[in-house]
Amino acid sequence: MGISGSKRVTTILSNSPEFNSACDSAYEESLSLAQHAFAGVRPYQLVSAAAHIHRNLSSLGFSLITRWVPSPPSQSQVDSALRVTVSRVAAAEEEEILGPEEFKEWAVEVFAEAVVGNARKTIASQIPLGIVGIAGIGAVTRSGQNLIGAAIGVYAIGVATSVFLSLSD
Question: What does the alpha-carbon distance between residue 153 and residue 131 come to, in Å, rounded to a whole number?
């Protein structure tokens, strides 16, 4: 997908009222579950917060999530997004507590990476199958190598473009 796919998804998530509402709901639930003992959300709460956001967005039929993120982000995805978010905010604090802004930034990061990662997997699985099919047809019809190579190139570009464009749904 590259940088532009990731930026596209990040922009869609950041500007979505549904996503913002799901983030606010998960943030409030995390504070409530901790009985407001902290000024924000602690790292150990983030996996359940990601599951809460995923559940809310899936129930709303939010297309990016329903199409590209079939299950809540994993622990490693949550931790990776936390490292990115904390490094942006400032690692000066000893305790990692995410306030509302940092929490939303973390949520955008974790879900954008989940969407883009699954889109990459789709491209990686579809292109080789198509190439094998095109090469097989070329071998049966005894077409020239240049024609086969061009068809494979067009197919690969078509699949990548199709996936990229579906990220805006």
Answer: 9
* pTM score, whole prediction: 0.76
Q: Residue 104: what are its φ and ψ, rounded to 5°?
A: -65, -40
Q: Are 40 and 99 in contact (CB under 8 A)?
A: yes
Q: Give 55: exposed, middle or buried? Use CB within 10 Å, 0-12, 13-18, 19+.
A: middle
Residue 91, judged by CB atoms within 10 A of its CB (0-12, 13-18, 19+), counts as exposed
pLDDT digits (tens, 9 = 90+) for 35-47: 877 778 998 999 9
Structural tokens at position 91: 């690692």
13: number of Cβ within 10 Å = 25
Reported confidence tier of residue 1, pLDDT bands at 50, 70, 90? very low
Hey, what are 30's tokens? Answer: 């995390």
